[in-house]
Write a structure and sequence with these properties.
There is one protein chain. The protein is of the alpha/beta class. It has four domains: 82 residues, Alpha-Beta Plaits, CATH 3.30.70; 188 residues, 3-Layer(aba) Sandwich (Rossmann fold), CATH 3.40.50; 213 residues, FAD/NAD(P)-binding domain (3-Layer(bba) Sandwich), CATH 3.50.50; 62 residues, no CATH class. It contains 20 helices and 21 strands. Strands 7-6-5-8-21-20 form a six-stranded mixed sheet, sandwiched between helices. A six-stranded parallel sheet has the order 10-18-11-12-14-13. Helix 4 packs across helix 16, helix 13 runs parallel beside helix 14 and helix 18 crosses helix 19. The longest helix is centred in the last third of the chain and has 20 residues.
Length: 578
């Protein structure tokens, strides 16, 4: 009974270390590990012990006998990897290197700005070193986990389970949260540098890339980053003008510009079965709007061909499973000659094309169109459609192809147009900024001694959740190198002032409403309790004022200790309320 990896994974590598026969690749240190969409189990070498499944934090590894019909394609996908990369050499990979120790005894204090995956993986790497006396994680929002909370599609419940890893990180005794603090406004970088031996920015890439075409600012023209935040309950996006009901969108059609995973997430949520979505952690207001709406078709536009589409293979397998289950209709509109390549992505798209249904039935449908570029969003006071130009593919040196516009164009009627062509970082107060790449210039995460970056603001919006782990390791290595050289002192030789206690006093003086770990745990427990009552994994609280009330200490005269909250949280998890 071999085991099978069934989704894009967190790249935590716990499964690799747990495997007694080294049958999971690519492994850390092997070419392609940091960029891989997923890891793969070698069925020929797997002994069926289940150690990998136990170690996986997101439940992505299953025995082949437990796969659903929609997951059967992963059997072939895992096997195909080893046909290309045999990995005949089976040296052990779980060799634990000696722990690095800093040359100075410390104690060192580090501030991490950003409580998403990059920030929390950075904190975890830092806390492995006993010379680091404390890691304080700051975030503008009162809820941590960044894109795991506000970016992962609500129907990707397994991916969201990586939050259990973050809970383990934040439970470490030298870890603290300062949530609801806007570094750059409430507190400056200079003030952090006066109090910490190092500051790491892990603020992500929160903006979107623009199309730069007429009509882009009409009502009904949205960025996918905003729409994703809306249906995931981001406090800044709850009032987004989303046009789903028949009066605002009589065509019942939405056009999404882009064909990556986020574009597919958007299409899947907008056409998904509302009752199925009601069993997820989708934001309550978004669920109500989807229930009242009538989106019958979502068209995804790709400017090049199927082979150049940005969907990952696991996402396409998931889309295929939905189509085969009859949940939605999927239509692939592409030149048949562009669907003959032998790569896995093209083969999956060719399979979808072979079963495409041109006539719209009672089910909503997702249409994948290729070789089209938008040139104008149509409408006067709101979006009514989009004009697109047809492209031809022109080969370029090195084997790539370029989309070249032809004279043929067409108009597609739609009540909403969503651009999903990538995230973009924003300038960070006090740091240099590369306006072309949308990142902070750095050398292996080092902006200058004492100031560092990790995550998307460092490398751009590429990679998966787990990519932040190796990214954080690189940044922390640079930080430790600098501590060895400077002992955490500034260029003039002065050491940071104060201690952990005075830092907490300083922050609370600036931000009296700042939330700590205990308050986040109370808010988390409240959301889970409300979700449990409604048959959902959680009921997200999106209003900051209500978040404050939910995270406040209980008014019951009997003190509600953090341990009580943690035990209640574990009880909810064990009951299946995820």
């Amino acid at each position: 009974m071999p085991y099978v990896v069934t989704q894009s994974c967190c790249a935590d590598a716990s499964c690799v270390v747990a495997c007694p026969v080294n049958c999971i690749h690519p492994a850390p240190g092997e070419p392609g590990f940091a960029e891989a969409e997923m890891v793969y189990v070698d069925a020929a070498a797997c002994v069926g012990c289940g150690a990998c499944a136990t170690a996986c934090p997101v439940g992505a590894i299953k025995p082949d006998t437990a796969l659903s019909p929609g997951e059967q394609a992963f059997v072939g996908l895992n096997a195909e990897y080893y046909q290309v990369f045999p990995h005949a050499d089976r040296h052990p990979v779980a060799v634990v290197p000696p722990q690095r120790r800093t040359q100075g005894a410390g104690p060192y204090r580090v501030a991490v700005v950003g409580a998403g995956p990059a920030g929390l993986y950075t904190a975890d790497e830092l806390l492995k070193h006993p010379e680091v006396a404390g890691v304080d994680v700051y975030d503008r929002l009162r809820t941590p986990y960044g894109l795991v909370r506000h970016g992962v599609a609500p129907d990707h419940t397994a991916t969201k389970q990586v939050a259990s890893l973050f809970a383990a990180i934040e439970a470490q005794p030298r870890f603290r949260y300062f949530l609801g603090v806007d570094v750059g406004t409430d507190i400056t970088l200079a003030e952090l540098r006066e109090r910490y031996h190092a500051v790491v920015y892990a603020v992500g890439a929160s903006a979107d890339r623009r199309l730069g075409i007429p009509g882009e600012d009409l009502p009904g023209s949205l960025a996918a980053t905003d729409l994703v935040g809306w249906y995931n309950g981001h406090p800044d996006k709850v009032d987004l003008d989303v046009r789903l009901d028949p009066e605002q969108n009589p065509s019942g059609r939405v056009v999404v510009v882009g064909n990556g995973n986020v574009a597919l997430d958007v299409a899947r949520v907008l056409t998904g079965d509302v009752e199925s979505l009601s069993a997820t952690d989708i934001a309550p207001d978004a669920l109500a709007a989807l229930r009242a709406g009538d989106v019958r078709e979502v068209v995804l536009l790709g400017r090049r061909g199927p082979a150049q589409s940005a969907f990952t293979v696991p996402e396409l397998i998931g889309l295929t499973a939905l189509a085969e289950a009859g949940s939605i209709d999927v239509v692939v509109e592409a030149d048949p000659g562009d669907l003959t390549a032998d790569d896995t992505r093209t083969r999956l798209l060719a399979g979808l094309a072979a079963t495409s249904t041109e006539e719209s039935g009672r089910r909503p449908r997702i249409v994948l169109r290729f070789g089209l570029s938008p040139v104008a969003i149509l409408g006067t006071d709101h979006v009514t459609g989009v004009r697109v130009v047809h492209n031809r593919l022109s080969p370029r040196p090195g084997g790539s192809v370029e989309a070249v516009a032809t004279e043929r164009d067409e108009e597609i009627e739609a009540g909403m147009v969503i651009r999903s062509i990538g995230h973009r970082g924003l300038p960070v107060a006090g740091l240099p900024f590369d306006d072309v790449r949308g990142t902070v210039p750095h050398d292996a995460g080092r902006v200058e001694p004492g100031v560092y970056v990790a995550g998307w603001i460092k490398r751009g919006p590429v990679g998966f959740i787990g990519t932040n782990k190796s990214c954080a390791t690189e940044t922390v290595t640079s930080l430790l190198d600098d501590l060895d050289r400077t002992d955490g002192r500034a260029a003039d030789g002065t050491a940071p002032r104060g201690d952990l206690g005075s830092i907490a006093d300083f922050v609370r003086g600036r931000c009296p409403d700042v939330a700590d770990l205990a308050e986040w745990q109370r808010l988390d427990a409240t959301e889970r309790e409300r979700g449990l009552a409604a048959g959902r994994p959680r009921h997200k609280i999106t209003d900051p004022a209500e978040q404050r009330r939910a995270s406040a200490p209980a008014t019951d005269p009997r003190p509600r200790r953090v341990g009580d909250v943690v035990r209640r949280r574990r009880a909810l998890e064990s009951s299946g309320a995820r």
